[in-house]
Amino acid sequence: MSKTSRRIGAASMIWAAGILLSRFIGIFREAVIGRVLGSGADADVYFAAFTLPDFLGYLLASGALSLVFIPIFTGYLTRGDEEGGWRIFSTLFNVLLLLMVTACAILWLATPVLAPILVAPGFDAAQTAELVRVIRIMLPAQIFHVLGGLLGAVLMARDQHVWPAMAPLLYSLGIVGCGIALGGTLGPAGFAWGVLLGSVAGPFGLNLIGALRSGMRWRPVLDLGHPDLKRYFLLSLPIMLGFSVIVVDDWVLKAVGSTLGEGVVAKVSYAKTLMKVPMGVFGLATGAATFPTITRLVAEGKKGEAYETLIRACRAMLVLAFAAQVGFTVAGPQVAEVIWGTTRFTTADLEMIGGFTGLFCLGLWAWAAQTVVSRGFYAMQNTWAPTLLGTGVMVAAYPMYVALGGMMGGRGLVIASSITISTYVALLSLWLRRKMAPPASAGIWDLLVRMGIAVGIGIAAGEGVEAMLAVSAAGMPALISGAIAGGSGVVVALVAGWVLRVREVTEVVGLVVGKVRRKLGR
User: Fold this and answer.
1) In terms of residue numbers, what domain contains 104?
2) What percent of the chain has a predicted confidence (pLDDT) above 70?
3) Domain assignment present for 218
4) Half-sphere exposure of 325 toward its Cβ, with a 13 Å CA cutoff?
């Protein structure tokens, strides 16, 4: 195994562990939210309240901050100019702090006007008043998310992944703690205080500790003429101006969902949270771990090697994502029942959340893949391509959200979401191949076709097992029946992938069979 592969493998394990823990705590967080707020008006308010704060972060490209800054900071480290790296870090940190505080104050004042127009036009007067209150509590959290993202970027550029990988854990724990303590009396506002405190402790506080331990050198400088400050904002400009699928999908789901009746926003949000568990564990972990390495390879002029590295990581990740799709599609209602229980949720509510989860999982491969594929562009410091393409796809898709939502309610919204993200990632992958790939390089399309067939077979098998359990073992606990049906579907899908000669599945099966044979031969 090469040094590059070992570095990516180690970083992937760190990120996978951190994101897995974060997702488990995130599921616990959603369980607390659901059991306290239910799936009605209060939950709708809480989930809708994220739209305006998220927009503030998006306006300053916080979601791609590390992707833009890592190549800049890495360049200084590669040249041996660490002092110069800390100077641009300090300048950017101070500029972002001033911008975020100013923007936060403006939006705080404008919230009563913007909330009923842009965030949730379908809410009644009481919900809108509560929405304004909750948004105002959440807004300052974005200051700490943005500054913490910059601190995390510095750590990742230095191949120190533990601190940024663990930061989301404290964020979720803050929401859980405040939700349990305050949610019963303050409702959505109790969880909003958790969002704020969790942002201070996790994304900002934990990354600050890591940066200080790694020798961070902050300076009270404001060098507005620094060439790399201008470069940062030029690279971030398309993200600030664009409205890409990745972020805007959430906004559209909530805005259109608010017009479709009480509880639609909450149920769609709960279902997307379930889908994000495997997306984060596999997709985000792979993307975060791979990015520093492919950035270095591109900087060394090795685009072809960078592409091959990215594709190898993406293919292995997609096999896991497809397996997860089978499990969540088959056992979605049971997973929902285990997490949220039957006290605040009816059987129909849980069935609806489970159904929405399965429909979201139609695009799970794309949600996971975009976290890796987009980094190929960012490694080349090309931020225009993903944003322009994403904006174009989103503008074209918006009428579909409205039309399918009007015809099919929440189901239509989720289907539109899966179609949109799948279209975006397919086009983005083709574009990346043209930009980076050598002529004989491997791709992912053969894997998508073969694993798509395997997933269909696995879902059919899992649904068959679930139907048999419903007849022969009625009353079985949801945890057990979901594990049996979903697990059966996953096993059948992986066997089908092996039969269809999906290389990554075959390699895993070969390793397992080899180990078993060696043990039996002892």
Assistant:
1) 40-241
2) 89
3) yes
4) 29
CA 274: distance to chain centroid? 11
Q: Give the count of domains, the chain.
A: 1
Task: Name residue, tokens 């799936």.
Answer: 39
Q: How far apart are CA 386 and CA 377, in angstroms?
A: 7
Q: Is residue 264 part of a domain?
A: no
Cβ neighbour number for residue 431 with a 10 Å cutoff: 17
- Contact yes or no for 347/334 (Cβ under 8 A): no
39 neighbors 267 (Cβ within 8 angstroms): yes
Distance in angstroms (rounded) separating the CA atoms of residues 522 and 515: 11
Q: Is the pLDDT of residue 512 over 60?
A: no
- Would you say 404 and 252 are in contact if contact means Cβ atoms under 8 Å apart? no
Q: What is the pLDDT of residues 206-249, one digit of tens each?
A: 999 999 998 888 999 888 889 999 888 887 877 666 667 777 89
Do 100 and 139 meet the contact criterion of CB atoms below 8 Å apart? Answer: no
* Domain annotation covers residue 228: yes
The number of beta carbons lying within 10 Å of the beta carbon of residue 105 is 12
The DSSP code for 280 is I
User: How many CA atoms within 13 Å lie on the side-chain side of 517?
Assistant: 6
